[in-house]
Specification:
It is a single chain. By secondary structure, the protein is α/β, with parallel strands linked by helices. It is 31% helix and 24% strand. Helix 2 links the parallel strand 6 and strand 7. Helix 4 packs across helix 6.
Length: 335
């Protein structure tokens, strides 16, 4: 039997992020009175599992949000633009994973460990930030509170699961083919080039500035979440042949001088973050260390040799959890 509590809808319930969301709701014992699994036409008739019950997937429609308290959207920007307003008109609170409404000045863009107070001004819709931005800010924000960040240079190393199940499957197929036929041409459909044994400095479309949309998000969203409208973030986002969990190399300049001892103390006390900074023992954050885990990890701390009052560090986090499903459920818990 389902618990008494809130009536929940999950749009995109059969996708990678939607599946993870169901697991997080169950694992964190969120008070669910009823669950409506919603998908595209090709998902109708499938079932998802929640608390030992099999729930059939319904087709997304205008009536999908009748008597729903909270609607989680994990089906992309186009779906969110069309159906989030309908959900809100049905008096559901929408928590949207897509980028559709993130930069709307009337929509809170929330990482609960950073700007939970922004939830107080929601008008029925809360946006979930970009997963790479979230992972970076989990380490950067505690440092900002202590030392006041000026500017940031960052390079992300993003797993193929950030492209959904298709990205994971393409990497698996390319690895298999390379093992069977070494030196053969590896076909690519999800990405413009093979991802197996390769790095692609190209995530999302290019802007006129030469940056990609993904790279621009890291500045725009960081500014909004941290309430720092003048913050400069120069990012390079790279797709890597890793199945799960994103990593970011960060060099940040601060208003106040930073020592390694002070930085470690600050980061060791940060909620949702673990300090993994023993490089001499080969202990530092890695995708394999954080995959499937709620907390992000930060390490490789060192005084930056190019910045005044600078610090360089490496942070890793599961983008399907803290970058998406977990963050969304944490927002719902706060609500």
């Amino acid at each position: 039997m389902l618990m008494r509590g809130y009536h929940i809808a999950v749009v995109g319930a059969t996708g990678a992020a939607g599946t993870e969301l169901l697991r997080v709701l169950e694992r964190r014992n969120f008070p669910v009175a009823s669950l409506r699994a919603i998908g595209s036409a090709r998902s109708v008739g499938k079932s998802v599992s929640f608390r030992d019950e099999s729930i059939r997937v319904e087709k997304l429609a205008d009536q999908s949000f009748d008597k729903i308290d909270i609607a989680f959207f994990s089906a992309g920007s186009d779906v969110s633009r069309d159906y989030v307003p309908i959900a809100c008109q049905s008096d559901a609170i929408a928590i949207d994973k897509s980028s559709a409404f993130r930069m709307d000045p009337h929509v809170p863009l929330v990482v609960p460990e950073i700007n939970a107070e922004d939830l107080r001004r929601h008008r029925g819709l809360i946006a979930n930030p970009n997963c790479t931005t979230t992972v970076m800010l989990m380490a950067l924000y505690p440092l900002h509170r202590a030392f006041a960040v000026r500017r940031v240079f960052a390079a992300s190393f993003q797993a193929v699961s950030g492209s959904g199940a298709r990205g994971v499957e393409e990497l698996k197929q390319q690895i298999r083919q390379a093992a069977r036929e070494p030196g053969s041409t590896i076909p690519a459909t999800v990405y413009p080039h093979p991802i197996a044994f390769n790095l692609l400095p190209h995530i999302d479309s290019f802007l006129q500035s030469g940056y990609t949309k993904e790279e621009a998000k890291m500045q725009e969203e960081a500014r909004k979440i941290m309430h720092l409208p003048e913050l400069c973030v120069s990012a390079t986002c790279v797709r890597v042949p890793v199945y799960r969990a994103h990593s970011v190399a960060v060099s940040a300049e601060f208003e106040r001088q930073v020592s390694i001892e002070q930085a470690r103390e600050v980061l060791s006390k940060a909620t949702g973050l673990e300090l993994a900074d023993e490089p001499q023992s080969n202990h530092y954050p890695m995708p394999l260390s954080v995959a499937g885990k709620d907390n992000c990890q930060v390490g490789r701390l060192r005084v930056d040799c190019a910045f005044e009052n600078g610090l360089s560090f490496w942070v890793s986090g599961d983008q399907l959890l803290k970058g998406a499903a977990l963050n969304a459920v944490q927002i719902a818990e706060l609500l």
